[in-house]
Amino acid sequence: MRLRDIYKGNSGKPKISFEVFPPKGGEEQYPALYAELNSLKKYKPELVSLTWGAGGNNNNSMELVKTLHCDLDLNIMAHFTCICNSRENVENHIRDIESLGVKNILALRGDEPKDLTVCHRDFRYANELVSFIKDRTDLSVGVAGYPEGHIEASDLKTDIENLKRKVDCGGEAVFTQLFFDNDKFFSFVEKVGACGINVPVIAGIMPIISEKQVERMTSMAKISIPSRLKSQIEKFSENSDDMKKLGIDYASEQCQKLIESEVAGLHFYTLNKSYSTSKILDNIAATV
């Protein structure tokens, strides 16, 4: 099912989706990923997004896309970055995606690689990739949004203007970066609407599992930590079980308030683990 159909109308309940990434250990680690996803299938996700392209390196295995889509019978949204990619490579990729029967793609600029000695400049921004895909295929295209602004953007207003370019070029749904402050998300949605963007905005949720994880994410992106949450993270920093429970409880409360606001969807950054996401969905089961 395409994004345009998944998020069509408002049923009163958010659509659930998950994000996973190709295991760093390669094919030997694929069975562990399959097991985690099989544990999550009972929640009937509308789609599962599969990342790749960190640092401009598009080396994800199409075999993994095929297995998740065909063998595990999951509706896959394949990620693709355009930075340092040639038009020929992008066209070949989207043809491969279509040949597998995948209907959705998340179009991203990607990170600038450290080594720029060999780098195509056919695409500079994600809106150019969105246009390229929409001109050549019937794929549904999702785009990324940043409730507190992209880390490279001068300010949130400018970043939302960039988002509008992606949507105007054919973006059908906005999947946000993770956030811990719902007020930031609500404000973002309001500003997005005022800018003339009328596609669904899907809330990105990542349960906390460790203090190191939070430090890494906040160093890489504009993600603020509410003072109440910050003090709890510090309190449980030495106890992994308590920290994991904190992450589950906090995200459950966060999701419940988002549901009450009639959010279009909840997109869980699972980190390839099912436990925390499963517990959160069990906690909010009555409303999803």
How would you describe this structure to a colleague?
With 288 residues, the protein is of the alpha/beta class. It has one domain: Alpha-Beta Barrel (TIM Barrel). It is built from eleven helices and eight strands. Strands 1-2-3-4-5-6-7-8 form an eight-stranded parallel barrel, surrounded by four helices. Helix 3 links the parallel strand 2 and strand 3. Helix 5 packs parallel to helix 6 and helix 10 crosses helix 11. It is globular, with a radius of gyration of 18 Å. The two termini are 19 Å apart.
In short:
It is built from 11 helices and 8 strands. With 288 residues, it is an alpha/beta fold.
CATH topology: TIM Barrel
Q: Which CATH class?
A: Alpha Beta
SSE run: HEHEHEHEHEHEHEHHHEH
Shape: globular
* Arrangement of strands in the largest sheet: 1-2-3-4-5-6-7-8
Count of alpha/pi helices: 11
Rounded Rg: 18 Å
How large a portion of the residues is in β-strands, by DSSP E? 5-15%
Low-confidence parts lasting 5 or more residues at pLDDT below 50? 53-59
Major β-sheet profile: 8 strands, parallel, barrel
Distance from first to last alpha carbon? 19 Å
Mean pLDDT across all residues, rounded?
92
Overall SS class: alpha/beta
Question: How many discrete structural domains?
Answer: 1
By DSSP, the count of extended strands is 8
Helix proportion of residues, in percent? 40-55%
Which architecture does the CATH hierarchy give at level 2?
A: Alpha-Beta Barrel
